[in-house]
Design brief:
The complex is a heterodimer of chains A (about 260) and B (about 350). Chain A has about 260 residues and is mainly alpha-helical. In chain A, about 70% of the residues lie in helices and about 0% in strands. Chain A has 12 helices and no strands. The longest helix of chain A has about 30 residues, at about 100-130. Chain B folds into 2 domains: about 5-250, P-loop containing nucleotide triphosphate hydrolases (Rossmann fold), CATH 3.40.50; about 255-320, 2-Layer Sandwich (Alpha-Beta Plaits), CATH 3.30.70.260. Chain B is built from 12 helices and 13 strands. In chain B, the strands form 3 sheets. Chain B has a 6-stranded mixed sheet, sandwiched between helices. In chain B, strands 11-12-10-13 form a 4-stranded antiparallel sheet, covered by helices on one side. The chains are: A mainly alpha (about 260), B alpha/beta (about 350). Chains A and B meet through helix 1 of A and helix 2, helix 3, strand 5 and helix 4 of B.
Chain lengths: ~260, ~350
């Protein structure tokens, strides 16, 4: 009789710890990514400053700095990782573990976020020093709500990725699904401007999609652009999107798994 | 009473494959109009494996071995038929089954790429909730038997194929699974490591009563670890019986392989050819650097070996069993009425 029983929940934090340790192997790579992304972002900010003038919109630049930090922290790499594993048939070995497939990568992605947050916090800290009070939370409640919102943002981000990555089963490459999600994220998450400044039609479109909840919502709550009942509505919307995406992505994975083909030994 | 380790009735699996026309124009046409064909990988497979049995699953490339194993593990869903593994439906109860089985896919590493081997083993301990008492038995045994001590601190990505395979095998057996599916577990291993792997597999069978389903292209893996052989051909069952009856029927041939330091002289070559002809030895290979003769008669091969050793051309001499592919090829030839 085997000694083993299903791993249970303690398997996931254990996996999280190993995945976090594995990230340290790639610290230099993450730092390079930070520099490259930061340089690109700084370019955008300089253009905005030229257009708006530095002193006219400190709240706007505080939002941009915060959005950069949140976006960098939430940049989970599991889509490319899982995509390659599906393509190369290594999903077979993932499915052999006595754990839930989606939760396993959820915890791995959480390790991505925790690791990248260290870098993101450094950037936000520098921006805070430069921009002063404009970067501070609107209130203690706003800080608390923004913290909850960040947790929900990650939940949405992961399940969006998990849903899009399943496109690989149809496209046989992660290129299309990944770039599609990246386009939607770039356009509608609010990383380059707050959603409330979007043109009417684009803003309405962004409000119908979940991407704004990954970057805009936590940043807007922190800075008080969304406050009071509006903040609670935003949190409820995040929770609903998160649960909905989880249900849809898990159901679709269950259906797609039936059509899984792993050939070649 | 325990359910059998494996019960397959009418098990079938079809793959759907796109047919592509050759060339650029064919690829372009395929974008708009791609024909799909059904490829039957496994057809109406029926077999039963009792607990504690050691079964070798063999067949040519594409015979359906790996697809069968993947269905048994719950990774692939059968297209038709009934399948029960350790009393569970592998597809529907994949996670429950995964806790009770150990699997090696020789071509697909399951270790975490960036962390040391030791960390993977401790992670698996938590993932499989292995009791300390069991871990205290399996971990030192695996590390010792597969000579892993030096490899434990190394990240997996720094290991060679053979080192990784040894670690993969250890990882699959760490939780003392009730049933182990080992798909080409000795691929990339040298002679010593292969022997260590086989000894470890036998130890688990002895100590924990682990049922074994082994697929391999190295017949020696099977003769040293299995008592039963299941032979697949084009997704169907061609032979199912004891190792003894399999060997008696198909795998009696041995090979004499001589690596030469220099080509045989004309007189040596003439004597060897005459002996081979007289003893009914089959010439598998006859080149300037290597001679390979095959026969079911060990005495005939021994005489050829003596003749070769009497000269000074031989650098290394070895007796081997035929590769699985070779045995299977001869089985097919016999079945189709050809000359073996």
């Amino acid at each position: 009789m085997s000694a083993a029983r299903a791993g249970g929940w303690r398997a996931y934090p254990a996996y999280f710890r190993r995945a976090l340790a594995a990230h340290l192997e790639y610290s230099a790579s993450v730092a390079m990514n930070l520099l490259a992304t930061g340089a690109g972002y700084a370019f955008t900010v300089l253009v905005w400053r030229r257009a708006l003038g530095p002193s006219r919109a400190p709240g706007f630049f505080a939002y941009l700095a915060l959005a950069f930090g949140v976006n960098f922290a939430m940049n989970v790499a599991f889509e490319r990782y899982v995509g390659d594993r599906i393509r190369e048939g290594l999903i077979a070995t993932d499915l052999l573990k006595p754990v839930d497939y989606a939760w396993l990568f959820f915890w791995q992605s959480l390790s991505d976020v925790v690791f990248q947050s260290v870098f993101a916090l450094a950037v936000v800290g520098v921006a805070w020093a430069a921009l002063g009070r404009a970067m501070a939370p609107a209130s203690g409640a706003a800080a608390l709500e923004a913290g909850v919102s960040l947790g929900l943002a990650f939940f949405i981000q992961f399940h969006l990725g998990f849903l899009f990555i399943q496109g690989i089963f149809a496209t046989h490459s992660n290129y299309g699904p990944f770039t599609t999600r990246m386009f939607l994220h770039t356009a509608f998450s609010g990383i380059f401007a707050p959603i409330d400044l979007y043109p009417r039609l684009l803003g309405a479109f962004a409000r119908w999609l979940p991407f704004r909840h990954v970057v805009y919502t936590p940043c807007a709550i922190w800075l008080g652009r969304v406050a009071g009942a509006g903040a609670w509505r935003a949190l409820a919307s995040q929770a609903a999107w998160g649960l909905g995406l989880m249900a849809v992505s898990r159901l679709s994975f269950h259906l797609i798994r039936r059509h899984l083909t792993i050939q070649g030994g | 009473m325990d359910a059998p380790a494996v019960l397959a009735e009418g098990l079938s699996k079809d793959y759907h494959r796109r047919v592509r026309q050759p060339g650029l124009w064919g690829a372009f046409k395929g974008v708009f109009n791609s024909e799909r064909v059904v490829v039957p990988a496994v057809r109406d497979l029926r077999f039963r494996v009792e607990r504690g049995e050691q079964v070798g699953l063999i067949g040519e490339n594409g015979a359906g071995k790996s697809t069968t194993v993947k269905m048994l593990c719950g990774i692939l869903s059968p297209s038709a038929g009934r399948l029960e593994v350790l009393g569970l439906d592998p597809w529907r109860q994949r996670r429950r089954l995964a806790a009770r089985i150990g699997v090696v896919f020789g071509q697909k590493p399951q270790l975490l790429w960036d962390i040391p081997v030791r960390e993977t083993f401790t992670l698996l301990k938590e993932m499989y909730a292995i009791p300390d008492a069991v871990f205290a038995r399996t971990y030192p045994k695996i590390v010792g038997a597969l000579d892993l001590e030096r490899l434990l601190p190394s990240p997996v990505r720094q290991l060679s194929l053979g080192q990784r395979m040894r670690c993969d095998l250890g990882a699959a057996m760490l939780h003392a699974p009730e049933l182990a599916f080992l798909d080409e577990p000795t691929i990339g291993l040298d002679v010593i490591a292969k022997q260590q792997a086989r000894e470890l597999i036998r130890w688990f069978a002895r100590e924990f009563g682990t049922t074994l389903i082994l697929t391999t292209h190295d017949l020696k893996d099977i003769t040293e670890t299995c008592s039963r052989v299941v032979l697949l051909d084009k997704g169907g069952l061609l032979f199912d019986g004891s190792l003894q009856s399999f060997e008696d029927s198909f795998a009696r041939e041995r090979r004499l392989v001589a690596e030469l330091e220099r080509p045989l002289g004309p007189a040596e070559e003439a004597r060897l050819r005459e002996l081979a002809s007289g003893e009914g030895l089959r010439v598998v290979e006859w080149g300037p650097a290597r001679v390979c003769l095959a026969s079911e008669s060990v005495a005939g091969l021994n005489r050829a070996a003596s003749l070769l050793l009497a000269g000074s051309a031989v650098a290394e001499l070895d007796f081997e069993r035929a590769e699985v592919e070779e045995v299977v090829r001869r089985i097919y030839t016999r079945r189709e009425g050809g000359r073996p």
